[in-house]
Design brief:
Layout (H helix, E strand, L loop, with lengths): L2 H4 L5 E4 L14 H12 L3 E5 L4 H10 L5 E4 L4 E4 L4 E5 L4 H15 L3 E6 L6 E3 L13 E2 L11 E7 L5 H12 L3 E7 L2 E6 L4 H11 L7 E5 L5 H6 L2 E4 L5 H4 L4 E2 L7 H9 L3
Parallel strand pairs: 1-2, 1-12, 2-3, 7-8, 12-13, 13-14
Antiparallel strand pairs: 3-4, 4-5, 6-7, 6-9, 9-11, 10-11
């Protein structure tokens, strides 16, 4: 390690994508690109840590010419962007997930479901009633809910006709939190995950591959699914647009994703 790298405030910069690194149009501003480039040129490593599975992340990383490691699928997948290779993958136990769903629906009534299949080409299947956000991300609409369970999954998405995201997640945790992980990853996005899995799980694996540690990590995020990553990292920075649950545990709050929040922190810390 060079003397310059050894003197860096943080040797690892972990950034969420949606609502954090990406603007609303899925672009990264020139100012933020320049700040990240300067920090990595000084010796820091940058890891993207996203709730999106690899098939929903790869096109963004390619457009950014991102060559490093990315943690995808809420920590389930460690992906080498430069080599287009999946390094690790954790799947959801479908029997446990089915039992969890039956417990949740007994409490809340019927749910609308979608599911993300495992693998580099894993499809996102959308069941009857599930509301898909507008945008370019590909989905496969299915009529028979049984198709959701036909192949290995990394997560299941839940929606409720009347409960908001926080209320649905809380209800799911109360009745099935001993079977699956439950997280809120964005508006209309409540997810069931393998128990114990989080962004911190995947980030720790990726950091270990780079020889870096939690105490050397600066993390940026905007949603409750970033809470474990903040807890693992030395310094957690919430965006101004972040969910209240995340700002409550953040070490610092920066400007929004639309106002170069990441760049402002990096410019200050790395004297850019």
């Amino acid at each position: 390690m060079t003397a310059a790298a050894a003197s860096l405030p943080y040797k690892l910069i972990a950034t969420d994508l949606d609502g954090t690194l990406l603007r609303q149009d899925e672009s990264v501003s020139e100012r933020t690109r320049a700040a990240l480039a300067a920090a990595t040129a000084a010796g820091a490593a940058h890891i993207v840590v996203t709730g999106r599975s690899v098939p929903w992340t790869r096109h963004i990383l390619d457009a950014l010419d991102y060559q490093g490691l990315a943690v995808c699928g809420q920590g389930a997948q460690v992906y080498h962007a430069g080599e287009h290779r999946l390094l690790t993958s954790v799947t959801l136990d479908r029997q446990l997930a089915g039992l969890a769903l039956s417990k949740i629906e007994a409490e809340t009534g019927p749910l609308y479901l979608a599911a993300s299949r495992d693998g580099l080409e894993g499809e996102v299947l959308v069941g009857p009633g599930y509301r898909v956000q507008e945008g370019p991300l590909p989905t496969v609409v299915i009529d028979d809910p049984a198709e959701l369970w036909a192949a290995p999954l990394n997560k299941v998405y839940l929606q409720h006709p009347t409960l908001d995201d926080d209320a649905l997640a809380q209800a799911a945790r109360e009745v099935a939190g001993d079977l699956v992980g439950v997280t809120v990853a964005g508006e209309g996005i409540v997810e069931l995950l393998p128990l114990g899995l989080s962004k911190a799980t995947g980030l720790s694996l990726a950091a270990r591959r780079l020889g870096l540690k939690a105490k050397e990590t600066l993390a940026f995020g905007d949603m409750p699914n970033d809470i474990p990553m903040f807890a693992w990292s030395a310094h957690g920075v919430a965006m101004a647009n972040a969910h209240d649950e995340l700002t409550a545990v953040a070490d610092e709050i920066t400007a929004s994703n639309e106002e170069d929040g990441i760049a402002r922190v990096l410019e200050r810390l790395y004297s850019i």
